[in-house]
Structure formats: C-alpha cells, structure tokens
Amino acid sequence: GANKKTTDIQFTPILSGIEGKVIRFDDKGGVSAAGDSNKVYRDNNTYNSDNTSIVGSVASTITSSKNSIVLGGSGSRINYSINSAIVAGEGNLIDVEVGSLSGVMGHANVIIGSDESQITSSANNNFFMWNTVIGGEQNKIYGGAVGSNKNTIVGGVLNKIEGNVSGSVIIGGSGNVVDHPFSTIIGMSNK
After folding, report:
1. For 140-175, b where at least 16 C-beta lie within 10 A, e where not — what string?
2. DSSP 8-class letter at 31
3. Tens digit of pLDDT for each residue in 52-65?
4. First to last CA, the chain
5. How far is CA 107 from CA 26, 63, 155, in A?
6. Which of 27, 115, 159, 189 could form a disulfide with 170 if both were Cys (CB 3.0 to 4.6 A apart)?
C-alpha cells in the first residue's frame, strides 16, 4: 500500500476503462477515500493514528491523532489531537505542539464548516481539549502553556481566543480577541 508503515488494502474502481479514486483500508482501522493526495502519518506507538479516516477530502493529512477524522473539504490537517475532527471547509488546522511532556496531546478538538480556521497550542500544553470552531473564516483558538479547554467560536471572521483561557465564547463579529477565562463576546467588532 501507499503507507509504508502499515499493510493497506486498496480498491480502485474502474468504469469504462477509467480508474476512479482509490479507497484504502489500513491495518490500524483507518480509511482513506479520496485518492493519494490525503496522508495519514504515525510517528510511533505513543503518538499513533489508529482508527483515523479521511473521507471526501483532498490534500488533507492526519498525524499521530488516533480516532480522528477529516470529512470533506480540502487542505486540512489534524496533528497530535486524538478524538478530533474537521468537517468541511478549506485549509483548517488542529495542531497540538508536542513538547517535552511525553504523552501530552490534544483531545476532542473540532472545526466544522469553516475556512482557514485554527485550533492550536503551544508546546507542553497540559490541557488542550474540547475546543470548537463552527463556521466563519480565519478564526483561531490558541492555547497557552498552562491549558486551554472548552472554548468556542461560532461564525464571524478573524476572531481569536488565546492564552491560558477556558470556557470562553465568541459568537459572530470580526476581529475580536478573548484572553480571559469564562468570557463572552457576541456580535461585536475589534473588542
């Protein structure tokens, strides 16, 4: 198969002599169904990508993020965040920077129907989980070193939740920044 670290089974439908898109099943429970532009990487046993899937997407990757999925869209990436998902949209990123704390990863971070949005953390982030971006464009949740969890951005453009923040929400608006825990901004600009 295409992934040299697993034993893949792949199917290539042929209709009227023309090859269709490859559907690949790997020995770690993963499925890729949109051709060779999608990749799943597994660094080692601590950070594996068992049971991951990329379906209906192009040029997307999942790295060391078991039980995660990219569904639809294009150019999206999930790195070191288990049980996470990107659904539709383009150029989205869930990326938990893994530092010297062995085994520390993101968990249950989700981006749905957004373009160029990010859920990312600094190295050694102890608690980076349950963060969500729904809709909008270029929205970002960026976690500090202590931890960030249970933050949500719904719609809007260029909104940010950043630092050691938990339980904060931005709904709509543009250019808003939340850097305090348990804060909410609704439909404002540049606050």
Report:
1. bbbbeeebbbbbbbbbbbbbbbbbbbbebbbbbbbe
2. E
3. 888 888 899 999 89
4. 51
5. 23, 14, 22
6. 159
Over its C-alpha atoms, the chain yields an Rg (Å, rounded) of 17
Q: In whole angstroms, what is the distance from residue 70 CA to residue 61 CA?
A: 8
What average pLDDT does the structure give for the chain?
85
Compute the distance between CA of residue 12 and CA of residue 25 in angstroms, rounded to an integer.
12
Host H or E run for residue 122: none
Helix, strand, coil shares of the chain, percent, nearest 5, are: 0, 45, 55
Length of the chain: 191
Sites in the chain below the pLDDT cut of 50: 1, 3, 100
- Exposed, middle or buried, 176 (CB in 10 Å: 0-12/13-18/19+)? buried
CB burial readout 81-97, b (16+ within 10 A) else e? bbbbbbbbbbbbbbbbb
pTM confidence score: 0.84
CB 112 within 8 A of CB 131: no
